[in-house]
Amino acid sequence: MKEEQQVKTFIGTFDELKELIQESRKLFVVDFFATWVLPSKKLLPHLSEIAKEHPDVEVIRIDIDKNLEISDHYQIVSVPHVKFFKSVSNNDFIEYGFDNGCKPEIIRSKID
């Protein structure tokens, strides 16, 4: 039986996020969100669908209120805000796109 991918909520430092991405060769879809923002809440079911459709993609959420270091590093000023990351070596990863406004069809198009 195939294990179902789930959207995970990341809590940690920028260095821990960087290490997580570098150790995996997967594409990461990272949703910066806030629990009190309605569009962030509405995006979650779509992210869950995307995670199920693409088991080779890691979908994670980062609460900007609990992870200030990371949200400050990426200058996240509005949510939801989705970024895409992929490891290119053991020492680095690239951010290769983002979607501010976070329409599910745009997120899917960047994965495919």
TrEMBL record:
Ranges where the Thioredoxin domain occurs: 1-112
Superkingdom: Eukaryota
Signal peptide: none
Alphabetized SUPFAM superfamilies for the sequence: Thioredoxin-like
Entry's transmembrane regions: none
Protein name: Thioredoxin family protein
Organism per entry: Trichomonas vaginalis (strain ATCC PRA-98 / G3)
